Protein: Integrase catalytic region
Organism: Streptomyces bingchenggensis
Amino acid sequence: MLVLRHENAVLRRQINGRVRYEPFDRFWLAALSGLIPRYRWREVFPVTPGTLLAWHRRFIAAKWDYSAQRARTGRPPTRAALRKLILRLARENTGWGHRRIQGELARLGHPIAASTVWEILNAAGIDPAPRRAGPTWREFLTNQAEGIIAADFFHLDTVRGRRLYALAFLEHGTRRLHISGVTAHPTQEWAVQQARNTAADLGMRTESLRFLLRDRDGKYGQSFDAVFEADGMEVIKSAPRTPRMNAHYERVIGSIRRETLDHILITNEAHVRRVLAAYQRHYNTHRPHRSRGQLPPDAHQQPTTVHNPDAHKLLRTHVLGGVINEYRYAA
């Protein structure tokens, strides 16, 4: 009677589907099997004795399996953060092979097999061997920029139509601007004196500069070149009528005109000196530059991130009477 009642409960539980016995059902039927003679099992039990024995074997096997406590075999997977670091080192150092990257990781405290580094690079489509053909043009020019300073004249006209000339220098690596002087008569002697002033302002930075880039203007002369050659620089002259060979400098002159000179009427030399000095300070200390990660030439690190702008007062500084605005948060 107990067997029939339990079988009826199982059938009601799964009336529209295949009969499935849960672990509790199997235990109950196994317990009742000892109360019924074997010759009557066919009449009472919905399963055969072989099924009961198979259930018991699976129960014992599961009990003594210990699979939950078994340690995972094989090499553990590489963490996603470490994979990302490997790919970053490979992209930023195209001359490094997988063993060089492995060594750098070991120095950073990440022990990893060279074969694992090779597999990660290969899966990402990066050649695990170092490139032997040399850097790309972009990498080459970026590296060379650290040792180049460019020089050129640019002109401006006063409110009365008098033409003035300014001599400026631009360090390619840092984008630092040096406007050395303004005159109405740019002679070779005047240009040489501006070169001496600029070399003195550069100070120890001249040791990292290898080339002076200028055009073939007759206002320079051999004495001008000699000032920089004395500091170990090589003078490179651009081709005639090719301002694009000094593109960085031409871009800076365009910025000076668009941001300052196009908005001010210049009265005389003293006035333009003050204007250019103010712009030089703004350009070197505040104006962001894309080539430097939006940092000004004189800055070495990004400012602290402001997470709640409403909690800080934004201050505006007028440069040249409001022609240029500088912003900062109050301390």
